[in-house]
């Protein structure tokens, strides 16, 4: 019986740490959105941005997805949502965060956030791995629009999940 209390205490401590980690990542996400705002005031203006400007915007979009993925990896680690297919672990991780896995854990993101994040995930892959292509301003407009949609919904969804974590503490 005492070991049960230890397991609960251990899970409580992990929930506290995860909650703090998510808060830190939300601060980073806010900074990335602020940087994006300085470089891309509207998605329409990207068609007139030079190559260097497109690279800067792409860099911030890349980091934006990475910050969200860090949150999701930490959540998956705590709740042992392992990803089996190593070839598509990025997409599987995102899919898992869209699942309601109660009583283990609630859904982290809804369909709107999932759609936006999935577009950012695909863009990040191209940005990381396609060394010889030029950035397409029209494609970047689509990705930036998805990022701006995400900006409107992500905080409320993460706050709801963090309330679940606080209930575990």
How are the SSEs placed, and which strands pair?
Elements: H1 2-39, H2 51-78, H3 89-97, H4 111-129, H5 137-168
Helix pairs in contact: 1-2, 1-5, 2-3, 2-4, 2-5, 3-4, 4-5
Features of this protein?
single chain; 75% helix; disordered N terminus; mainly alpha; 5 helices; globular; 0% strand; 169 residues
Portion in beta strands:
under 5%
Question: What integer is the average pLDDT?
Answer: 85
Secondary structure: number of strands: 0
Helix content: over 70%
Uncertain stretches of 5 or more adjacent residues: 1-7
What is Rg?
18 Å
Overall geometric form: globular
Oligomer: single chain
Please give the largest β-sheet.
none
Structural class: mainly alpha
End-to-end C-alpha gap: 20 Å
Order of helices and strands: HHHHH
Number of helices: 5
Characterization of this structure:
The longest helix is centred in the N-terminal third of the chain and has 38 residues, at 2-39. The chain is 75% helix and 0% strand. It has 169 residues and is mainly α. The protein is globular, with a radius of gyration of 18 Å. It starts with a helix and ends with a helix. It is built from five helices and no strands. The protein has helices at 2-39, 51-78, 89-97, 111-129, 137-168. The relative contact order is 0.15.
């Amino acid at each position: 019986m005492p070991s049960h209390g230890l397991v609960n205490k251990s899970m409580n401590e992990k929930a506290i740490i995860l909650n703090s980690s998510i808060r830190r990542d939300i601060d980073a996400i806010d900074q990335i959105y602020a940087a994006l705002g300085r470089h891309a005031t509207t998605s329409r203006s990207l068609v007139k941005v030079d190559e260097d400007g497109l690279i800067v915007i792409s860099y911030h979009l890349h980091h934006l997805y990475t910050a969200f993925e860090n949150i999701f990896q930490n959540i998956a680690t705590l709740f042992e949502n392992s990803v089996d297919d190593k070839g598509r672990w990025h997409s599987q991780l995102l899919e898992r965060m869209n699942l309601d896995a109660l009583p283990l854990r609630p859904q982290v993101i809804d369909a709107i956030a999932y759609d936006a994040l999935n577009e950012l995930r695909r863009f990040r892959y191209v940005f990381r791995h396609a060394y010889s292509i030029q950035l397409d301003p029209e494609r970047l407009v689509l990705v930036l629009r998805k990022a701006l949609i995400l900006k409107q919904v992500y905080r409320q969804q993460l706050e709801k999940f963090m309330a679940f974590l606080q209930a575990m503490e």
